[in-house]
Amino acid sequence: MDMNSVLTVVLVLIGAPIIGCLAAGIDRKITARLQGRVGPPILQPYYDVKKLLSKDNMIVNGSQNFYVVVYLIFIILSLLMLVFKADMLMIIFVYTVASLALIVGGMSTGSPYARAGSSREIMAILSYEPILILYALAIYLLTGTFKLSAVLDASTPILMYTPLIFIAMLFVLNIKLKKSPFDYSTSHHAHQELVKGMLTEYSGPGFATIEIAHFYEYVFLTGLIFVFWAANPLIGALIAIVAYLLVIVIDNITARVYWQWMLKLSWTFLLAISIVNIAFLYISGVKIV
Amino acid sequence: MSLAKSPWIIHVNCNSCNGCDIEVVACLTPLYDAERFGVLNIGTPKQADIMVVTGSINYKNVNVLKNIYNQIPDPKVVLAVGACASTGGIFHNCYNVIGGVDQVIPVDAYVPGCCPRPEAILDGVVAALSILENKKKGNIKGKEVPLKGNEVPSNA
Ligand code: SF4
User: Fold this and answer.
1) What is the pLDDT of residues B81-97, one digit of tens each?
2) Could you tell me if residue B144 is inside a domain?
C-alpha cells in the first residue's frame, strides 16, 4: 500500500457517508415536494443517525448487533473494491455477503415481522442476483477480463454496447435501494410494511449503524451505474445521479407490488433483455479498449 | 439537541373512536406536514421516541399498551392525545374502562380536546420534545411496567 491508496481509503471512508447522507436527505426532500409538503431539512438523515446513537440499545439477543457490524464492514469492503477497480465477480460476491448478514440478523431475532421481511429479502436477492452476474459477464465479454480496471481505463463507455443491461440495472437499483414498488422487505421514511420488515427488532445504535451502512450502499450502488460511462467521469456521474433521481420519482408514483410480481418481472423481462444483450456481445465479438 | 431534531412517534390506538386517529394522521398530511420537524410515524416501538396514545384504556388493551411502552428504548415520552386518553373522556366510568392512559403508564404531556385539532397535537409533540431532552440530560429512565395476566374489573 503506497501513500496514495491509504489516502483513497480514508477519503472513501469519510466521503462516502457524507455523500450518502446528502443523497438520502435529497431523497426525502424530493419525496416531500412531490407530495406537496415542505419536507424535512436536507441534513435530516444526519440528525436521525445522531439521535439513534444517543438512544438506548435494546437487543433481543447477543448476536443481533454483530450481524449489523458484518453488514457495515462488507458494504464498506465492496465499495472500496469498486474504488480500487477490483474483480467485478468478487465485488458482487462480497456485496451479497453484506445483504445476507442483514437477513441472518433479521432471522435471528425470532420476531415474525422480521422473519417475513427477511424471507422477502431473500426473494429480492433471488431476483436481482442473476442480473448482476450478467452485468459482470458483459464486462468480461467486452474486455476479456472481470477486472474493473479494464473498463475504467478504457476510452469507450460500455453503455454503448450494454443498453439493455443498463435498463435491467436500473431495476436492480430500485430493488436494492428498497424503493417502491419493491420496498416490501423493509422500507425507508415512514412507509410501513410488516411493521418495519426485517429491521423491526433493531433500535438505537444498532439501527444507526444500519443507516450509516445504507449511506455507503447508496454510493456503492450509484457507483455500479457510474461504471457504465466511466470513460468520462463527468458523464458517468451525471448518469448515476439521473438514475438515482429516476428511482426516487418511481418510488413516489408507484404502489408496492407482491414479491411474486417482482420475481416474475426479473426472471422473465429483465433476464430476457440481459441475455439478448449478452448474446449480441457474444456473437458480434465487440471489444473495447 | 439531537433528540429534538428527529422525534419518531409511534401511534397507539387504545379503544379510540377513530376521531383522534384521523387528527393524528392529519398532522402528517401536506397541510400540516409534521415531517418538516423530522417527525416520522414509525411502525416499530423499538425505534420510536414519542408514544402517541389515543383513546381510553380498557381491560382488553391494557396489556398491549404496557407491552408497547416497555419496548420503547429510553429516553422516551408518552403523549396522551384526546379527552379519552387524558381522563377516559366520554367512556369514563364505563364498566370495561380503566380510565386515562396515566392510570397504567406515566404520561408526560396531555393534549385535551374531543377531538384535538392537528395544531394542538403538533403543539403537544413540540412540548414533548423539551421533556425528551430533559430526560436525556437527567438520564431519566422509564420504569418497566409489569404485565398482569388477564386483567378484569374488581367488581366482575
Ligand atoms: S377524545 Fe373524542 S375523538 Fe378522541 S377518541 Fe375520545 S371520543 Fe374519540
Assistant:
1) 989 888 888 888 888 88
2) no
Residue A244's Cα: distance from chain center in Å? Answer: 11
Tell me the domain boundaries of chain A.
3-284
Assigned domain for B79 exists: yes
User: Structurally, how many domains does chain B consist of?
Assistant: 1
Subunit contact B36:A37, Cβ cutoff 8 A: yes
Please give the full DSSP string across A20-55, using - where no structure is assigned.
HHHHHHHHHHHHHHHTT-----TTHHHHHHHHHHHS
- Does a structural domain hold residue B151? no
pLDDT tens-digit readout, B61-118: 888 888 889 888 888 899 999 898 888 888 888 888 888 888 888 898 999 888 889 8
Q: Using DSSP, state whether B54 is helix, strand or coil.
A: strand
**Which residues from A are below 8 Å from B75, CB to CB?**
55-56
- Tell me if chain B has a CB within 8 Å of the CB of A183: no
Q: Which of B1, B3, B6, B141 to mutate to test the interface with A (most CBs of A within 10 A)?
A: B6
Q: Calculate how far, in angstroms, residue B85's C-alpha sits from the geometric centre of ligand 1.
A: 8
* Residue B145 lies inside a defined structural domain of this protein: no
